[in-house]
Amino acid sequence: MKISKKVFLYTALTTFLSGILIISYFVVMLPGLYADFKNERLLKGITDIQANNVANIGCASTQTDTFMAASINLPKSGDSIKLCTPFISTDIEVNHPDLVEFVNTFKIALDDAITNQNESAFKDIDFSKIEAIFQSQNMDGLFTLTNSAFTNSFDMDPHPIIRTKQSEDGSTIISSQVKDANNDYTSYVAFNQDSDSFYLTFASAMTPKLNELTPIVLASTPMILAFLVLFTLVAAHYFSKFLAKPIETLASQATNRHADTDIVFKQSHQDDEFKILEDALNQMHQEIMKSIHSLTDKNAQLELEKERQKLLMMNISHQLKTPLSSASLMVEGMIAKIGNLVNTDQYLPKVKQELNHITVMLESMLLVFDDLNSEIKHETLDLRPLINNMVGQIQNHTEIKSISVQTNLKDVSLYTDVFILTSIIENMLTNAYKYTDLNGSIEIILGENSLTVENSPAFIPQSILEHIAEPFVRNVHSDESGSGLGLYIVDSFVLLLGMQWKIENTSNGVKTTLLFRKDI
């Protein structure tokens, strides 16, 4: 369900419940409130009438908008009585002796009741004589009416609404409205007849006033408003929490999300726009993480390329020393006419061969630097002729030190990077002849899965062997000079090719083993 529909339903439900509560309030509370209000009005009305009676304001005050009353002014002396009603006022002169006696007795009891708060003041009054007088149905001479006058009159509506209705017994009922100064009345006349008589009934009822409810409603307004405000605040609080919870959940998940999780954002609303937002955030997270992984891989590749470039520089500079030192050694020997080196016709071609080797290496170096940003290039390489060629290249060095070289080479082909693998093998052979004593030996064994170069006599102290793959580590006890980078380059290049290698002391020498991966 969309959020707009949820808001609509919330608004409709809140309005409906508010209406139900207001209606329930008036249904339950209004009758009681109206009764209390009416009782208060009646009490106030009789209080005002009595106050006017005491103040002798007049008989017109006996009519209010609540009811009609009659007031009696009973003088403490004399036999007259002042009677006031809303429509007539008169003085009643009591003539009958028994009535005079009764009135005087009533005055005494009334005075006792008012003055002494005596609730039993009227118990001793004898009403039997009065009852006998009125039951005799002889009213002559009982009292005399004087000063009689009408005090009020009804006003007929010039355009009255007259309704006629026929009852079940055949009577005709006619209703019409009249009013006085304070109230409206509905008058009814019902009549019927039979063979013997006419039947007439007269009635008058006070018409209820709608404005009587206004004070009750106004008095109830503060409580209704307070309740509505409280109800609205409570409903808005829970509905706002209902709508805000998914946002708060997503915000918390965004702050504490885990990079290794594809689904990071999850909230409880799965049927509205929050689900769309959740899916969009998860997709964005996945795309961001994908971009981060891609950048990380590229950075790692750049670091690897940077390391490779560094290794290439060190390897090339390291390898250039071998032919340069060889050519320099032969030239110095020929200049000094040492031993067989006096035969320049024999050794000058070898010097040229070393210089050509340097030229080839420089050209290879230029080719490598032209393609430093490319990936490792794999091609098929036959190891046996490669190793035989390398053995020939170090022959001058081995002859000078009278080192014998023995080979046991199988026909092995690898699908690998030619330049890097060539650099590894050259460093292995260079280290072998450089750190072999005079009249020593070098044994080269090429198998299906490994290349082993063992030179003797030779020895690497254990303290150096533990750090042999680190840069600039070399045997300070050896007479050979070096940069300490040969085996570091081997270790780094082996890692680039995904191979393994190890170096260890044997009973009489040092054995270096290259365990390569062969792709068939």
UniProtKB/TrEMBL annotation:
Sorted UniProt keywords: Coiled coil, Kinase, Membrane, Transferase, Transmembrane, Transmembrane helix, Two-component regulatory system
InterPro entries with a match to the protein in the record: BphY/WalK/GraS-like, HATPase_C_sf, HATPase_dom, His_kinase_dom, HisK_dim/P_dom, HisK_dim/P_sf
Designated name of the protein: histidine kinase
Transmembrane portions of the chain: 7-34, 216-239
Record's keyword annotation contains Transferase: yes
SUPFAM superfamilies: ATPase domain of HSP90 chaperone/DNA topoisomerase II/histidine kinase, Homodimeric domain of signal transducing histidine kinase
GO CC, any one term: plasma membrane
Highest rank taxon of the organism: Bacteria
Record carries keyword Transmembrane: yes
Catalytic function, reaction form: ATP + protein L-histidine = ADP + protein N-phospho-L-histidine
Cleavable signal peptide: none
PROSITE patterns referenced in this protein's UniProt entry, alphabetically: HIS_KIN (PS50109)
